[in-house]
Amino acid sequence: MNTRDKGQQKLLWGSAIVVGLVVVITLIDKRSIGMQWLLSGLTVGSIYALVAMGFSVIYSSTRVINFAQGGFSMLGGMLMFSLSVSGKLPLWLGFILAVLIVTALGAGFERIVIHPMKDKSAITVIIVTIGLSIFMTAIAKWIWGTDPVKIAAFSGDKPIRFLGASLVPQSLWVFGLTLVAVALVFVFFNKTLLGKGMRAAANNPDAASLVGVSSSTSSLVAWTIAAGLGAAAGVVIAPINFAQYSAGTALGLKGFSAAVLGGLGSAPGAVVGGLVLGVLEQITAGYLPSGYKDAVAFVILILVLLVRPQGLLGRPEEVKV
Amino acid sequence: MERLLPKPGDSDRRAYRTLLIVAVFIFVVPAWSRLIPGSVLHMDIVNIMVLVGVYACAVVGLNLLVGYGGQISLGHAAFFGVGAYTTAILCTKLHWFPTWLGIICGAVLAGMVGWLVGKPVLRLKGNYLAMATLGLGEIAFILFQQVKGLTGGTVGIVDIPPLSVFGLKFDTDLKLFFVVWAVVMILMLLSINLIRSRVGRGLRALHSSEVAADAMGVNTSRYKVQVFVLSAVFAGLGGALFAHFQKYVNPESFTLALSILFITMVVVGGMGNVWGGLVGVVILTFLPSVIQALPQWIPGLPSGLANFSNYELVLYGALLIVFMMFLPKGVAFGLSRAGKYSEVRARHLRDRIKARKMEGR
After folding, report:
1. In angstroms, what separates the C-alpha of A117 from chain B's closest C-alpha?
2. What homologous superfamily is domain A31-307 in, according to CATH?
3. Of A3, A212, B52, B269, which alpha carbon lies 20 to 30 A from A45's?
4. B342 in a domain, yes or no?
């Protein structure tokens, strides 16, 4: 284990301790709802983590901030509604189909729009992703209307009691899915040739292309993974948060804040950032009027950029000429 | 002695000449819109042109940021809103407050907000500003709604007095038209000069290679912050004028949709082209009115076209993607190419006529 990994571990523990302290403080607080906040925080935090991972995967392989990332989640939730509620398909089939459709859309968009623009500046590509994000929102508004839609929880609504707090069963699905997704991403990037190649390309694109890592394939795979992660997050959170055409923007912003908090481009960072952001948001909502809850992500984003731009687990970016 | 205005070179003279032509063309709009009454076109041209002008303030600044700073702002509606709310609050809560001072306060406050956000974010390489301003836009919208004591909540502020400068009241669309467009022309002149200034050269160097610019001693992040703050001030100014034009403000006017509209205007007009912003604003501000008027011009078209707001976002999204893919330099670039082409053709034609005459002699 080299020094950098040690540094990362220190930070990982550090952030765990910070969250732990916050939890202890809130548990001591007379209202004793700290556990509740922790559980709800980890639930939304898992979703932020998945979205953040999508941002990081695309960013590390193409240096583009994908503004449509939140849109993938929104689309996943809405498709789940159409398939399983309107289309009366079984839940598991609806889930798989919704994720597959969005993944295919993400891959198709990369091939049709992003790939031909590979020589253009990052700002041009970012504007295109902004366009895609608006386009998806507008189309969703057209198809599904403006009202939020309700999707039944995967296994009932009966809350589970856990250390004095109640937990909706859907949260377990969220945790489970996040674990599986993180494990898959980890295996892909550490055990497969393609994944290792993509990591090499993220580290040094020129050297990687010299040894035969195709940047075109990397970009396609990155978009596919990001769309899949986003869609899965959108589907599994839909029963808790309602699915709505406009949900993508806020989710995208929070996922991005989580990615920056953890270190943009770092997959473990995305997970840590997402969970920490989720918990902090719940605690803030507990003490402040809930209207300000959405401001937490933004404040954290600005603070991180001010104090530690490389995030909790990221490395400072070095620019070579 | 240092010159306040640098000595104009050939391309500068060209820019000033174009500005003059554009100014003359725009200031006679009220006259020719009398010749073709708006009722024939089913739209109030002077009224729309005032709106074009206030949007242009924001878009001209945003164009500098996108085209020269290489950064995107998705929160310019927030600066526009800060400008509008500042003057609205000052002029309605304090009745003696001069409206022109309210507008200046709005612009300054917008610039200060821009500095607060831009300073930390623009230190970094990469496009963090886009997300940060997206967040800023959302927060501004939340604050406009939540701080009810100042902003009047969702209802907003009504009965904003018309703009008046030392007793001279600009209470009709036509009077306001001249004020707003005079402001736009001043901002255009500032932009043209800025591009040629030290800051402009630094920004251009930064655009071609940030690392090289850094190495040459260009303080890239400072220039980026400066141009971002300037664009925020322009947007605040536009917003403040907008408040006195509309006579009421509410949060719904300053949503993400407006920020997106501004970006679309820049992209359609042409990033990094001073005229681009102006062209984009004119096209996209008139577009809704034109589309809504279509069924009246051409009978038989579905009247559903009148509900433009239902599908405006689809259109903006599609425009952003299509322009970036196929026409990244925008309409203004096409126009200027056409202009140069026709100039070359004209010179060519003159030469040939001259040659003919010589032969004939």
Report:
1. 7
2. ABC transporter involved in vitamin B12 uptake, BtuC (1.10.3470.10)
3. A3
4. no
User: Residue A31 and residue B178: Cα distance in Å, rounded?
Assistant: 61
| Domain contains B126 | yes
Mean pLDDT of A134-139: 90
pLDDT for position B289:
80
**Measured between CA atoms, how close is B275 to chain A, in angstroms?**
19
Question: Looking at the whole model, is its pTM more than 0.95?
Answer: no
Q: Residue A310's closest chain B neighbor by CA?
A: B124
pLDDT of res. A6: 61
CB-nearest partner of B267 from A121, A122, A127: A127
Q: List strand residue ranges (DSSP E) for chain B, in order.
A: 163-165, 168-170
Burial class (CB in 10 A: 0-12, 13-18, 19+), B13: exposed
Boundaries of every domain in chain A = 31-307
Least CB-CB distance to A113: which of B120, B260, B325?
Answer: B325
Strands B168-170 and A165-167: unpaired
What ipTM describes this predicted complex?
0.81
- Residue B338 placed within a domain: no
| Residues composing chain A | 321
Cβ–Cβ pairs < 8 A, chains A and B: 130
Tokens read off for B220: 């890239």
How does residue A105 score in pLDDT terms, banded at 50, 70 and 90? very high
User: Which of A84-93, A159-168, B190-199 is least confident?
Assistant: A159-168
For residue B86, give the nearest of B263, B328, B254 by alpha carbon.
B254
Residue B28 has pLDDT above 80, yes or no: no
CATH code (residue B300):
1.10.3470
Closest residue in B to A121 (Cα) is B70
Question: Quick one: DSSP state of residue B7?
Answer: P
Top residue of A123, A141, A290, A293 to mutate, by most chain B CBs within 10 Å, is: A123
Residue B86 domain boundaries: 10-328
Task: Please tell me what DSSP assigns to residue A85.
Answer: I
How many structural domains comprise chain B? 1
CB atoms B311 and A138 under 8 Å: yes
